[in-house]
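The methods section describes the discrete structure representation at length, but only in general terms. Since the whole study asks how a given chain folds, the encoding of that fold should be made plain. An entry of this sort, consisting of the sequence and the corresponding backbone structure tokens, reads as follows:

. . .
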Amino acid sequence: MRLRTFCRIRFEIPEPTPFILMLRPRSGNQQWVEKEEFTITPSIPVFELTDGYGNLCQRLIAPSGMFSIETSSVVVTSNLIDQAFDAPFVEIQNLPDSVLNYLLPSRYCESDCFNEMGTAITEGYLLGYNQVWAITNWLRENISYLPGSNNEPLSAIQVNSRRFGVCKDLAHLGIALCRSLSIPARIVVGYLHNLKPMDMHAWFEAYVGNRWYTFDATQVGSPGGYVVLGFGRDAADVAIFNQFGPPVYPIEQVVHVEEIG
């Protein structure tokens, strides 16, 4: 499917403020960026970099006053996410070097605390993809997805205790459970067609069968329409903007995704 994505974020800046943005999709990972626009108002110098996870990031210093970021893109992506039941577990010694970092505990994914729970959830399932499917299904049945229920990321331990959260919270718990079983897992942030209510979205990927597969406990079935902006160990790595200095908060954030012919 071909999707048009749009995001506008507006701030009122009290003093010159450094930002790092992550708002540009890149081709690859089962998506192709046909067209893209990126507008900063007022016009200021912007410097682009690729972070340690391969994400496109933009550095800038926002001037005092009203400041807005507006991005749009046309992206070709899959109608359905790939599924691969019985795809095997990949032995640690056979994992690519670039994947090893996604085995370790991280700030919001305390995988070293979840081995017993992960083992219980996946008991009787074939090692690999089927284990991750069981984890995702368990999340869907046991952790309530409540958009807007919190603004700050929760760790996997907190989500497991509260039993509800936003999309990135469910992703954190899924990632922690996968890593506890030595399955590499990473968070993904981006857009999702037909998400309700529409906003930025987060899900996770697991590395089984020698490739990454998408898992999303907030959705039923295998709908496609995902547009990736960034990957990371957890939410700390994939904020769509990081701001430094006295805190400022968006006074407006608008997200649209529509399918086009």
